[in-house]
Amino acid sequence: MTRATAAARSEATAGAPYSRAGAEGTFVLEAGLRLQGASPIDTLRWAVEQYAPRLAFATGFGPEGLVLFDLIARHRLDVDIFTLDTGLLFPETYRLWRALEERYRRPIRAVRPALDLEGQASRHGEALWEREPDRCCGIRKVDPLAEALRGHEAWITAIRADQTKERAHARVVEEDRRFGLVKVNPLLAWSHDDVWTYLREHDVPTNPLHHMGYPSIGCWPCTSPSRPDEHPRAGRWRGRIKTECGLHLRQPRTPLSSVDSKGA
Ligand code: SF4
C-alpha cells in the first residue's frame, strides 16, 4: 500500500460507524459508493492506484472479460491477468486465448488445477461434472483461483449485475470474504448491449461460438446453446439448479446505509 493510499484510507475512515473489519472495511465500502457510476476505465485506474502490483484479473474470455482485457491491455495497466484453464475449454476458446495474446502482445497466464483430468478421473471417477458439478468446479476452478489469488490484495472481475441473482447484489468495490481480498467489478452497471457495442467499436476478437447460439461459454461438458427466449446463461449446467461456478457467490454484507456517504 502506498503512503498516499494509507493517508487516504485513514482520512476516509475517520469517524466512520462501521467497525466489523476496521478501517480497511470502511475504506472498501466508501470506495464502492464513490465509484458507483464511474466508467470502467476510471474504476480500473483507481484499482491500479490502490492495489498494483498486487492486483489480479481472472478472465474466462466472455464478452465482458474481453472488454476489461482490451482496456487493461490498451492502457498498459499493471494487472496480473490470468485464466482458469480447466482443461475442458472449447477449442474455440483456446484459439481466442492465443489470438488475444498475439494481437495485444500481452500474456494471459494459465492457472491450472492441481489434478489433471486423468488424476481427477482416477480419484473421483470419470465425468465428475455429470455427478457432482460443484465438486468438479471446486477442483478445477475455485481451488486454483484461491491459489492464484494468494499474495494479491484485490482482484478484478467482469461480472454484471443483471447476469444472475447472486451478481445483482454485488458492488463495484466489495470485500471478498471467501478469498480474503478486495473485489473490483468495473462492469457491474453495464448491460449486454453496452458490452457488445464496446466490442464492435473497438474491434475486439470474440469467441465465434457466441454467433452459434452460445451467449455464455464455460467448459464444454457444462455448456449448451440457449434459445433466444431463454436467459443468456440458461445453457450453463442446463437442467440443474447450479448457476455459478462458485467464484461469485453472494456474501453476507454490511448495509451501505451504515456508512456516512458524505464525501464518498
Ligand atoms: Fe467441471 Fe463443468 Fe465446473 Fe468445468 S464447469 S469445472 S467441467 S463442473
Main attributes?
264 residues; alpha/beta; Rossmann fold; six-stranded mixed sheet; binds iron/sulfur cluster
Briefly say what this structure is.
This protein is of the alpha/beta class. The chain is 38% helix and 9% strand.
Structure characterization notes:
The protein is an alpha/beta fold and 264 residues long. It has a single domain (20-246), classed as HUPs (Rossmann fold, 3-Layer(aba) Sandwich), CATH 3.40.50.620. It is 38% helix and 9% strand. The chain has nine helices and six strands; from the N terminus they run H-H-H-E-H-E-H-E-H-H-H-E-E-E-H. The chain has helices at 3-13, 22-34, 40-51, 63-74, 91-104, 117-124, 128-131, 133-149, 192-201, and strands spanning 55-58, 80-84, 109-111, 154-156, 173-176, 181-184. The chain has a six-stranded mixed beta sheet with strand order 3-2-1-4-6-5, sandwiched between helices. Strand 1 (55-58), helix 4 and strand 2 form a beta-alpha-beta unit. Helix 1 packs across helix 2. It is globular. It starts with a helix and ends in a 63-residue tail after the last helix. Residues 1-21 and 254-264 have low confidence and may be disordered. The site of iron/sulfur cluster (SF4) has 13 residues, from helix 8.
Radius of gyration: 19 Å
The run of helices and strands is HHHEHEHEHHHEEEH
Q: What would you call the shape? A: globular
CATH evolutionary superfamily: HUPs
Report the major sheet: 6 strands, mixed
Overall pLDDT level? 86
In CATH terms, what is the fold-level topology? Rossmann fold
- Measure the end-to-end span: 20 Å
For the largest sheet, list the strands in their spatial order. 3-2-1-4-6-5
How many domain regions? 1
Q: Give the class-level CATH name.
A: Alpha Beta
Number of DSSP helical runs: 9
CATH architecture: 3-Layer(aba) Sandwich
Strand content: 5-15%
Runs in which pLDDT lies below 50 for 5 or more consecutive residues are 1-21, 254-264
Q: What structural class should be given to the helix and strand makeup?
A: alpha/beta
